[in-house]
Amino acid sequence: MALSKFGFIVTGGRFVQYQGSGKLDIKVVGVDQKSEALDVAREMLTEGIQLIELCGGFGPVWAGRIIEAIDNAVPVGLVTYGLEAVPLMASLSSDGFYPDTTHSPRRRCDRHPPKGS
Question: Can you give the pTM of this predicted structure?
């Protein structure tokens, strides 16, 4: 069976948006609180969504909670970012997801150089 219905859940404000070509239809839902994504994911299942992707703001703990909430009925993916993006993501975080915004991975490395350097 080909993928024809895709769901994407993001943090940062409530909205619902539909996009699609008829061959692939996408539903994007924004939530204010990560906990709201549990019900959104369940609703997506009732609409026939075959795959759910979560924005990086959820992190692995919330991805696990969502997978449990839908009883692993469809694949759930999680957008992730490399360490180089953490300081940039912190500047965009409105909910304290990245609590330490004063240090970048590079600065930490500069303060704690590898032994023998």
Answer: 0.75
